[in-house]
Specification:
The protein has four helices and two strands. By secondary structure, the protein is an alpha+beta fold. Mean pLDDT is about 75; it is low at about 85-90, about 100-105 and about 120-125.
């Protein structure tokens, strides 16, 4: 769509992220790069030409209605579960109350468990 001139890059990003998240009623938890939101970020090569195949997709289906279609533009990198840097800097460990970005006294699993149970303090050692 962008290469054909039908959309600008910002319009494409909006259509495939924030607008899609709003349609599915998950905005701003998804579709926004901001503190408190989680995101999967992609790097797209708009000039790479490739052919769509079911074998190349991560799906339980062994067919694809677009099988054999040549397209321009391909995702070359996906970074999953991205956290905004300001969220990392301001987050505090529920176990020891130190900024998460700087401490090493608690295990990652302890910090995650504490986040899932607000108000609960973890006392388990490393």
């Amino acid at each position: 769509m962008v290469n054909s001139g039908k959309m600008t890059r910002p319009q494409f990003v909006a259509a495939t992220s924030s607008v899609a998240a709003q349609v599915f009623n998950i905005f701003p938890r998804k579709g926004l790069l901001a503190a408190g939101s989680d995101a999967d970020v992609i790097v797209l090569d708009p000039n790479e030409v490739h052919t769509i195949t079911a074998a190349a997709h991560h799906s339980a289906m062994d067919t694809n209605i677009y099988e054999g279609v040549r397209v321009e533009g391909k995702v070359v990198v996906t970074v999953s579960q991205v956290r905004h840097p300001s969220a990392v800097q301001s987050a505090r460990c529920a176990t020891c109350q130190q900024p998460e970005a700087r401490h090493a006294s608690c295990t990652v699993s302890q910090v995650r468990a504490a986040r899932q149970q607000p108000g609960a303090r973890q006392t388990e050692a490393k």
